[in-house]
Amino acid sequence: MSPPRPPRRRRRHPAAAAALLLACTAALGSCGYGSRADQAPAAAQAPAAGAGAKLSAASVTLGYFPNLTHATALVGVREGLIGRELGGTALKTTTFNAGPAEIEALNAGSVDIGFIGPSPAVNGYVKSGGRGLRIVSGSASGGVKLVVNPEKIKTLDDLRGKRIATPQLGNTQDVAFLDWIASRGWTVDAASGRGDVSVVRTNNTITPDAYRSGAVDGAWVPEPTAAKLVEEGAAVLLDETDLWPDGKFVITNVVVSQKFLKEHRDVVEAVLRGTVRTNEWINADPDRAKASANAALGTLTGKELEPAVIDRAWPSIVVTDDPLPATLRAQSAHAVAVGLLESPDLTGIYDLGPLNKVLGSLHKTPYQDTDDQGR
């Protein structure tokens, strides 16, 4: 852990900080495990078709976030690594700021394949009675940190009585933090966030402002929000990778609507061939990939990340084809334990057949989920 440095904070009047904290909390509202949609998706980009014959669908719509944990999509789309595998089938893309909105689009048929975190994937699967989606590949691991104000918090024990932000009630980081709190013997009411630690659900776009104002004392957040907070003077107190066996846990999966998978399995395989090649490309040339991902963010959001932010954030995110199913099930169990989810039946949530067909064709080792051995 890097030694803490004094925070660069512009002081605000306490009333202003309290007003910001109230706005942060009100904006999130009440919701269940991975259940909140922040806003409508961005409009789909114009279709891009590669050379060659069309596959079984004239087009495929890919959904993802303008976020570094969706680096496979950012780079794969920008560099044409996904589109070129589709031949004459057009690639359409659309972006989201919250998993639930993407799940809704997937269920409605306006998105065919999506990059998404484990919590909304599980929630979408459970709410549809196992009929809505399948996880067909991994995409990313890691990239989540607990960052804090070093003037107020110097050890993990110092978190007691402090205000710590998570992105939203029941999202992947919120569940991880609540589970970590419970592991220390502390108590927090999951719904309200009140207890030995105050859990403040705050949109990632607002969190740096909330930290700067003093409305929160730290945050358990994904990159690049963690790196942005460090630039504001926060210190990394804990990297979530240290809590998982082998330092791996799923942060982003690739999901597909079951209807699209059934009708256009060849298209799903082509997209996955593109994601596998993209992950190879990223791992082979991380500096070039970092620049590509940042350029994609600039196109999608209107502003690239500052060099210091992306340089700090990028190394902690590992792109991978491995869906890491054991970690998804552990995350679901954590949500059950903290009272945000009833015990789910996740049998059938994975279909790794298309991924393994692609991996086999590229002479790579296949993955297997124990519940889906026949797929």
TrEMBL record:
Compartments in which it is found: Cell inner membrane; Periplasm
Name the UniProt record assigns to this protein: Aliphatic sulfonate ABC transporter substrate-binding protein
Family membership noted in the UniProt record: Belongs to the bacterial solute-binding protein SsuA/TauA family.
Principal location listed in the UniProt entry: membrane
Signal peptide residue numbers: 1-29
Keyword Membrane: yes
Sorted UniProt keywords: Cell inner membrane, Cell membrane, Membrane, Signal, Transport
InterPro entries for the chain: ABC_SsuA_sub-bd, NrtA/CpmA_ABC-bd_dom
A matching Pfam family: NMT1_2
